[in-house]
Write a structure and sequence with these properties.
Number of helices: 2
Strand content: 25-35%
Largest sheet: 6 strands, antiparallel
Number of strands: 16
Shape: globular
Helix content: 10-25%
Order of helices and strands: HEEEEEEEEEEEEEEEEH
Distance between the termini: 20 Å
Radius of gyration: 25 Å
Structural class: alpha+beta
Length: 239
Amino acid sequence: MKGYSAIGAIALGLAFAPAVEAVPFYGEHADYEGTRSTDSNGLEFIEGDRNNPQLPNWDLILEWSITDNNDGTLDYEYTFSPDSGQTDSISHDSISHLTLDLSDNCVDSDGLSDPGCVTNAQLDGDSLSSDALEFGDIDGISSAVKFDAGDDLAVTYSFTSNRAPVWGDTFIKEGTWDAQNVGFGDTNLESETAYVARPNGTAQVPAPGTLALMAFGLLGLSWFSRRTRKGRASSSSAA
């Protein structure tokens, strides 16, 4: 009987709990490793602002890897490269810079409000000087960090942050062409592939709909338990 009561309680909760709406991925916990590309997988080319802008006929690949240092910091690494099978068709210049989304409390109008958000910045393993970094509203991203690049289409940016990864925006500047994540500027999309990992570190909490569902289930369980106890008490009295 107890088993039936529990099942009934869960069914009651499922039946009357409000529908749980899908939650947009922007700002939610992100994967520590991932890949995006302009081959229908999360990145898209857009026309640059140089003379005769044009879109490449090859694919740009972004790979990221995030390592927890177990000391309150994480190492972030972003690698951009052209598809290795299409290198013969590449006739463009080099990536000018990368702009990456940061949380509002990492960056303010005066620069970094929390210096721990981005430290030890490197390009291809070489330290970037303070002149090669810029913080603020850049390339259409509010509260961003901009990393200057070298003279190649294949580049790796890395830095250390005191923030855990969530989903956000990125912008890659070349000039003849530029690239960005497909969800760029839209925080309402319900697909993680629309964004890339970026440091923010906000804590995860259950969605309100999930909490309501749990509450209804517990309420139903309590109600069925009381009925069962009353029924047993009545049977004992009659006997």
